């Protein structure tokens, strides 16, 4: 049985929150919608969806940011789709200065409703608050885009955007088994958790042990975005919000073949983790489900 999305439906919803840390992103202010539906067919013949704005407080600074996502009118699964993300201040003026963090100006995480599909891509900054990126959505259905960027001199901001790819969609599948070992081509990844039972709000260490096909610790890991590894965690929720998103930093100076992260899970529930690392110049992704009490 399949669910069917007739025609083309495109919606963008943005929730802004303070950005990257080992803790989850939790909104600190009320979000007020600013409706900006537009089907006037710009250079991309695009749709501009709903836009929302939120005040980000930190380091004695205040910033209100509006973010617009533009996509082509014709959307299809498993095809390259050009997206434009425009960042503006409260007056509608483009935010044109950004700080680089983790070697990029913007990080974009794309997942589907069931958290089966995952992509971590980096839009290219075109100046005047405009970012461009090509994304591929493997199946029809609903997708959430978490955009992480840092206006110059301010804290990072995470925005949440939604896009629907039309067509028939398989019904949700049951969750994968809560296995602790994944093999990715020539690399075996074992997940070790400091706590037998993960408790909501409790600090936890996630240790990823990487071994080669001879069962020896990996010694040829390369830096990825300035660290030994990159970890994104998202709570299985409907709909997804910025409070479901966790971005953790790898600890430095760990032993060969080990990538460790300290973090905490804000609420009980089921979470999916994607740990990325660089081996032989190839970015590999190991995904795991965990349950939080």
At a glance:
By secondary structure, the protein is an all-beta fold. It has strands spanning 2-5, 17-18, 21-24, 32-34, 46-48, 51-58, 61-72, 80-89, 106-112, 118-121, 124-125, 130-136, 141-149, 157-165, 167-170, 181-184, 187-193, 203-211, 221-222, 230-235, 245-249, 258-264, 269-279, 282-292.
Task: Describe what this molecule looks like in 3D.
Strands 4, 5, 6, 7, 8, 11 and 12 form a 7-stranded antiparallel sheet that branches. Strands 3, 19, 20, 21, 23 and 24 form a 6-stranded antiparallel sheet that branches. It contains no helices and 24 strands. Helices cover 0% and strands 51% of the residues. It has 293 residues and is mostly beta strands.
Key structural traits:
globular; 24 strands; disordered N terminus; 7-stranded antiparallel sheet; 0% helix; 293 residues; mainly beta
State the end-to-end CA separation. 33 Å
List SSEs in N-to-C order. Answer: EEEEEEEEEEEEEEEEEEEEEEEE
**Fraction of residues in helix:** under 10%
Beta-strand content: over 45%
Oligomer: single chain
Q: Radius of gyration, rounded?
A: 19 Å
Shape: globular
Low-confidence stretches: 1-60
- Please tally the β strands and state the result: 24
Number of contiguous helices: 0
Could you give a short account of the major beta sheet? 7 strands, antiparallel
Mean pLDDT: 81
Q: Please state the structural category.
A: mainly beta
SSE layout and pairing:
Elements: E1 2-5, E2 17-18, E3 21-24, E4 32-34, E5 46-48, E6 51-58, E7 61-72, E8 80-89, E9 106-112, E10 118-121, E11 124-125, E12 130-136, E13 141-149, E14 157-165, E15 167-170, E16 181-184, E17 187-193, E18 203-211, E19 221-222, E20 230-235, E21 245-249, E22 258-264, E23 269-279, E24 282-292
Antiparallel strand pairs: 1-15, 2-14, 3-21, 4-6, 5-7, 6-7, 7-8, 8-12, 9-10, 9-13, 11-12, 13-14, 16-17, 17-18, 18-22, 19-23, 20-21, 20-23, 23-24
């Amino acid at each position: 049985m399949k669910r069917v999305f007739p025609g083309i439906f495109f919606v963008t919803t943005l929730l802004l929150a303070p950005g990257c840390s080992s803790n989850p992103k939790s909104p600190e202010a009320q979000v007020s919608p600013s409706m900006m539906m537009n089907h006037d067919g710009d250079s991309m013949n695009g749709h501009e969806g709903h836009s929302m704005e939120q005040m980000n407080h930190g380091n004695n600074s205040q910033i209100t940011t509006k973010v617009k996502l533009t996509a082509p009118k014709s959307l299809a699964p498993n095809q390259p789709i050009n997206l434009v993300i425009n960042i503006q201040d409260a007056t509608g003026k483009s935010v044109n200065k950004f700080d680089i963090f983790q070697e990029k100006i913007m990080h974009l995480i794309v997942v589907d409703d069931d958290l089966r599909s995952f992509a971590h891509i980096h839009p290219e900054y075109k100046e005047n608050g405009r970012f461009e990126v090509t994304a591929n959505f493997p199946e029809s259905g609903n997708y959430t885009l978490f955009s992480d960027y840092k206006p110059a001199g301010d804290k990072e901001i995470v925005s949440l955007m939604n896009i629907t790819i039309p067509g028939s969609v398989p019904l949700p599948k049951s969750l994968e088994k809560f296995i602790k070992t994944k093999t990715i081509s020539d690399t075996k990844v074992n997940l070790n958790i400091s706590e037998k039972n993960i408790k909501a709000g409790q600090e936890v260490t996630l240790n990823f042990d990487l071994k080669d096909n001879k069962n020896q610790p990996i010694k040829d890991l390369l830096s990825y975005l300035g660290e030994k590894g990159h970890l994104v965690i998202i709570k299985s929720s409907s709909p997804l919000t910025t409070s479901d998103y966790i971005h953790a930093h790898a600890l430095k100076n760990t032993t060969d073949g080990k990538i460790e992260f300290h973090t905490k899970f804000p609420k009980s529930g089921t979470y999916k983790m994607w740990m990325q690392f660089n081996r032989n110049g190839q970015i590999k992704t190991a995904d795991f489900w965990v349950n939080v009490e």
